[in-house]
Amino acid sequence: MTYQETIDYLYTQVPMFQRIGSKAYKPGLETSRQLDDMFGNPHKQFPCIHVAGTNGKGSVSHTLASILQESGYKVGLYTSPHLIDFRERIRVNGEMIPEQCVVEFVENFLKSNFNGNPSFFELTTTMAFDYFRREKVDIAVIEVGLGGRLDCTNIITPILSIITNISFDHTQFLGNTLAAIAGEKAGIIKHGIPVVIGEADGEVRRVFESKALSEHSPIVFASENCLIKEWNKNNENLVLSTIGYGIIIDELSGDCQLKNANTVLNSIPLLRSAGLKITDSAIHSGFSNVCKISGLMGRWTAIRKSPDVVCDTGHNIGGFQYITHQLREIDCSRLRIVIGFVSDKDVSHILELLPSDAEYYFTQASVPRAMDCHTLASLASERHLRGRCFASVAEAYNMALKESAATDFIYVGGSTFVVADLLSLVKNG
Predict the structure, then answer these.
(1) Of 260, 278, 294, which one is at a domain's C-terminal end?
(2) Does the pTM exceed 0.85?
């Protein structure tokens, strides 16, 4: 098989949630365990950190991987979804898995005559674990795909579990209350393994406390141990004045990154207690170069100047509470918003948060799950958001650029896949 043939197989022959949504969702660990057994239980060959949460788990995972790499470790990083290249999901020391390794894994799977029908994510997770074993990583950071309890990454026993936060997302799978969603996320808490909770209160906190108690797992609530005394912004970075770590420059500048950074900092003592040698200098370097080191994209990422263009993968109510606050603080002549969503998401509460004085470019990403731009425009008009429809992200973005003055600001987002289309467009010129 060529690499393109292999990718075509992964995208079309195994159910892929990223493309088709709920029809590809397959809860449970049985197939993952069977695949893992068939490949010789690769996940048991390296220690790992497990990261779940509604928002922020990608930023936390990449930042931890960056810090660990700067500490001298060979670090595996497994995240989802990808934005431009499938291989973004599986990295060692920031480098994507080679194309040939993807081909070889899929060929080995096909030759095995595996008695089952794995999903895209089940197969990709096994690929990541197998590659990390082959590369002899010192440690791996594993991001949960969806939920936690029944997510196929949950076959691992980590040295630390992290749950960033709980918000409403994927309610058709995880439950329609915050307590129910928290219960699913809490499923990654393992017996005797410490867990850091980024933020939780009320019933969500009680769910985590109960699960940690039943598992005899030490629990740390990062929001109750804020290690960031003060903060400000310097150009496109956050400047954090911290307790115990001095001044940290965070390359990730979105408002939500304050809580993500505090979650990471609260995780460091537990990782040190587990035997990892993490220097303060590695922490500083890991934060300040996280995108360069880990390959992270799409987190309040600046695309260009004059006009300023920023994209962000925030795609649910929890993420947009930060995004809309940040948009309202921007000093510009005209705010222009290029936006699209997936069709299986209730966007009504998100639309209610968006500023009514912006110019909207309603669009749809190049995935089957994309919400039709006219449907989105109709929903938006009910909330007094006005704009025009564009059949592709490229058309919407190019029109926004064409109509912008140098002092305008363009935000692109709504869906991970809208950001993916934008980044592909920018990459390809």
Answers:
(1) 294
(2) yes
